[in-house]
Amino acid sequence: MLYYCMSDLLLDINLQQLPDDYLAGHWQVASRVLNQNNPASPLALATRLQLNPGQLLAEAPGLPEAAAGTWAVQRDELLQRPYLRFNLPQEQTNALVTRLRRSADGQHSQLNLYFASGMEMQLEQSEFPRL
Amino acid sequence: MNPSDLASASPAPVDTNASPAWQEQFAFLADLIPQLVWITDPTGFHTYFNQRWIDYTGYDLAASVGPDMWNNLLHPDDQQRAREVWGHSLATGDDYSIEYRFKARNGGYRWFLGQALPRRDAEGRIVAWFGTCTDIEEQRKMREQLEAAYSDLEAKVMFRTLELEREVHDLRKKLADQPGLD
Predict the structure, then answer these.
(1) N vs C: which end of chain A shows fewer Cβ within 10 Å?
(2) Where do the domains of chain A lie, and which CATH numbers do they carry?
(3) ipTM of the complex
(4) Nearest chain A Cα to B161, which residue?
């Protein structure tokens, strides 16, 4: 709940100058609109995405293990913002970064993705300091 | 603020030709409307603020003398532009219109639309400027949200178009690679 109270304090990051490492980390899926996306695909079911250096893990409840693959940040001169390339054994797709918002201290982030299928996903990340 | 509280809220503007009753009615009306209201002499010195101005900014007429009020009230990014626009109106008599951010007593900034018209005497000389500041913070937010949504939509359309082009390219390549097909 603390995170939602702080969401007003998140600042929009200029996507044309977005450092790649802002996109890495362990993200919770906060909301999703499927549109034409296959509802049974790993990314459509995922509740958590781990974007580790060179490695993607899509975790979903009820699945014995996370779907593992790779991810990469891509850029196209025609697009004014980066997109992500997701490679999973069952699913290969691209997702445009439509918004990234971060707290001033970088502890909280909110990432909006727009997939080639039309699926939209909002991810959240909080790194609370360890006591 | 309840209108019944307004009768004596702000001082009536100094106008030696106006009756006390008229001045009281003017002050009542000026305090009733949702805008910040101000009057200046032809050179730009303030001669009247309504109560909303005083409540929002914390500056009354006595405190408005000198450059401090504008330097403290206006957002630093708006100060130069505001000086230029107001200076142009004072020099030419052109209508005054500008969007700028004012700092409230609590320290937060809000966007306002500042507008003013000159009042002239029978010979056409400017005798006073009558101005209002209308709070447009919500409209500005809506405008920014609309612009962001439009920009997002444009990017999404471009993204989907590029994806489609890639798919078409891949499909053509597959077809070309199949033996027996031209």
Answers:
(1) C
(2) 24-126 (2.40.128)
(3) 0.81
(4) A116
